[in-house]
Specification:
Blueprint (H helix, E strand, L loop, with lengths): L2 H8 L2 H11 L45 E3 H4 L14 E2 L1 H6 L7 E7 L2 E7 L1 E2 L3 E3 L6 E3 L3 E3 L13 H5 L22 E2 L12 E3 L7 E5 L2 E5 L19 E2 L5 E2 L45 H13 L1 E2 L5 E3 L14 H16 L2 H16 L3 E3 L14 E6 L2 E9 L10 H4 L10 H8 L4 E7 L6 E3 L8 E5 L8 E6 L9 H12 L5 H9 L1 E2 L2 E6 L2 H17 L5 E6 L2 H5 L22 E4 L2 E4 L4 E3 L11 H9 L9 H13 L2
Parallel strand pairs: 1-6, 2-8, 16-21
Antiparallel strand pairs: 2-9, 3-4, 5-8, 6-7, 10-11, 11-12, 13-14, 15-16, 17-23, 18-19, 20-25, 20-26, 22-23, 24-25, 27-28, 28-29
Helix pairs in contact: 12-13, 15-16
Length: 648
């Protein structure tokens, strides 16, 4: 250090800063007038105190600063934890004003339970603190101005508190009385470790407060009200740790518990490998913000993992996924029998509908999806489900029996007692975009998908229903029961999708990817660059599904004749068995709500025919009748939506 530098360091701090300010010199490095302190990137370290917060030229010595000592009674002790949650000593603006601190504010980052905030405040150095009795004296580290320190004076120990507890009475005289005119203005952090050292401790009975002797005085920790009276209405949490599972705790987490959170894709930059249940959805990246499974969804998946199995006949079987806590299902036989009589009367008034319904039920009985119901064991729970006939306006001549599992009896239904399972259905838009990716497209359908997955013997008593004996409408109605997961049960879609993916989990990677990503419930759609690739993929998928669960993938359609010729007629869609692509320009296949013209390989749309009134409801009905998930018709439909908006 030169003679001029030594002379400069003897100056009063205000005089030194005034000179630097006049010359436009950086307050941090004191070496350049080309930048300000906030933009300074020069590494600095004081040669006298090794501080990295100021250069040697701005070091503060007792000869050039006012040393001011203040005692704990003027600023209040650091209560309950002695400020160990702070790594710096902090003071309120009021205290720094009283001490005459006039330094320029410096920026700093404050990290608390509420998050990280950028702040600035004065910095005070050269001060000391002593206890009231004058026996303890400490030189304070640099103090940073911060008005967010705790200020609850009710936490201050008083002589009255100590006298209320027999084991603390002997320290009552060592506690000063509470001064209501003095507020908490100083928080001593871990940068002055000496004041946090425990010199003595007084404990009492279980759950009673205890006292610790620190160098600056005594502190009392715990609930000081006798018998737990006068509980505070407001809870102040000054220190909270967040565990790796997101829960808060006042205890310090175990340092030996390691939690690794991967930021970014796995496998050297490749996409993360997801299992067929989507159980990795808690991992997110810029391509995926899907919400993770709920507690009940994970319970459902755990149950399926443990109980889903293939029986001796080669059928996938599982129990009904009941909730852990559910009400008891009372016998609703009489209620459902009345519904069955009403169905009988309705069908006999419509002979054609009755015929179609009997044909549907005949197929159910022939495939083993339903059986005559045996006697209910004594004390065994059971449930009856009414059935009703459903027709589709776009599929005339076809009737389907649907089970009403939502029927309520004595305040509860079967669906209320079942876990619904996670939504394992793939994104429709993603499937359609991949379907249009390559020139050779193909689509297929799982035959009676729900009926490919059986219910175990014990739970079939919850699937009892009434139908004609031997499927003869002229005979009486008797009790049957379903042996499979039925259309109408809340968890059936999740069970079926889980089972479909489980059936191919041991197949080759391309088949697994096809089933996991390009199936929308029972509809399969994909595309490949060449017919050979499409044919090979579909055949391998058919083989894997049939081998591992007797699941049939059929109703195959394609926009390439070579692909259609590669499959037997029974596996093709019924509308194209007798046609060839090119023979009919209007050869249309309906899939996922869209009309696909096989000859032109285009989606086609029809204008809604129904005349509707020119009202808000009428226009809303008209606009929503056009199903266009990809948005091909957005330039057209947007006009209807704009008209609809003008009505609001």
């Amino acid at each position: 250090m030169t003679t001029d530098q030594r002379e400069f360091s003897r100056w009063d701090m205000k005089k030194r800063k005034d000179l630097l300010k006049k010359k436009g010199i950086c307050f941090k490095c004191c070496a350049s007038n080309n930048h300000l302190m906030k933009n300074c990137k020069h590494p600095i370290q004081c040669e006298k105190c090794d501080s990295e917060l100021h250069p040697t030229a701005l070091h503060v010595t007792e000869s050039n600063t006012r040393r001011k000592t203040f005692n704990s009674s003027e600023t209040a002790n650091n209560y309950g934890g002695e400020g160990t949650e702070s790594n710096h000593t902090l003071a309120r603006s009021e205290l720094l004003n009283q001490l005459g601190v006039t330094s320029d504010p410096i920026p700093y980052r404050l990290k608390s339970c509420a998050g990280v905030t950028e702040a600035s405040g004065r910095r005070a150095v050269g001060f000391c603190i002593q206890s009231i009795d004058g026996l303890a004296y400490h030189k304070l580290p640099p103090i940073i101005e911060c008005n967010d320190i705790p200020d609850n004076v009710m936490e201050i120990p008083t002589p009255e508190v100590a006298r209320a507890h027999p084991h603390l009475r002997h320290i009552a005289n060592e506690l000063p009385p509470l001064r209501k005119d003095v507020s908490i203005q100083l928080l001593i952090g871990r940068d002055l470790v000496d004041v946090h050292q425990v010199q003595g401790q007084v404990t009492g009975p279980s759950a009673s407060p205890f006292a610790q002797k620190l160098s600056l005085g005594w502190v009392i920790i715990g609930d000081v009200c006798l018998n737990g009276r006068h509980k505070p209405s407001d809870l102040s949490v000054l220190k909270t740790n967040i565990q790796h599972d997101g829960r808060g705790t006042i205890f310090t987490p175990c340092q030996n518990s390691l939690h690794v959170k991967v930021q970014g894709p796995l496998n050297n930059g490749s996409s993360q490998t997801l299992d067929f249940k989507g159980d990795s959805v808690f991992y997110t990246d810029r391509h995926d913000n899907k919400i993770g499974n709920s507690v009940e969804d994970r319970e459902f998946l755990s149950m399926m993992d443990q109980t889903f199995h293939m029986d001796s006949r080669g059928n996938w079987t599982s129990p009904l996924p009941f909730k852990n806590t559910r009400p008891t299902l009372t016998n609703n036989r009489a209620q459902v029998f009345r519904r069955a009589i009403n169905l009988d009367n309705s069908l006999k008034r419509n002979p054609e509908k009755l015929k179609q319904m009997c044909e549907f039920m005949e197929n159910i009985f022939n495939t083993g999806a339903a059986e005559r119901a045996p006697e209910i064991p004594n004390g065994h729970e059971c449930w009856y489900i009414p059935i009703f006939a459903v027709t589709h306006p776009k599929k005339p001549g076809k009737v389907r029996a649907v089970f009403d599992s939502s029927i309520v009896h004595q305040g509860c239904s079967l669906n209320d007692a079942l876990l619904s399972g996670p939504n394992l259905t793939n994104n429709l838009l993603g499937i359609l975009l991949r379907f249009r990716k390559d020139s050779c497209a193909i689509a297929g359908d799982i035959q009676q998908m729900f009926y490919r997955f059986f219910v175990n013997e014990r739970d079939r008593h919850y699937l009892r229903f009434y139908w004609y004996e031997d499927n003869d409408p002229h005979r009486k109605m008797i009790e049957y029961r379903m042996t499979v997961h039925v259309f109408g049960n809340r968890p059936s879609p999740a069970v079926a999708t889980y089972g479909l993916r489980r059936a191919v989990q041991d197949a080759d990677t391309e088949v697994v990817s096809f089933v996991n990503q390009d199936f929308y419930v029972d509809d399969a759609l994909t595309s490949r660059p060449t017919p050979v690739e499409v044919i090979d993929l579909m055949r391998r998928t058919q083989k894997a599904l049939d081998k591992e669960g007797k699941i049939r993938l059929h109703k195959i359609v394609s926009n390439v004749q070579e692909v259609l010729d590669a499959f037997p007629p029974d596996d093709l869609g019924k509308d194209i068995k007798d046609f060839s692509i090119g023979d009919d320009d209007n050869l249309v296949q309906h899939s996922l709500g869209l009309a696909w013209n096989l000859s032109s390989d285009c989606f086609i749309f029809q204008k809604p025919d129904a005349d509707v009134p020119f009202t808000r409801r009428g226009i809303l009905s008209k606009v929503n009748r056009i199903f266009d998930p990809i948005g091909f018709l957005s330039p057209l439909t947007i006009r209807g939506k704009m008209i609809l908006r003008s009505f609001t």
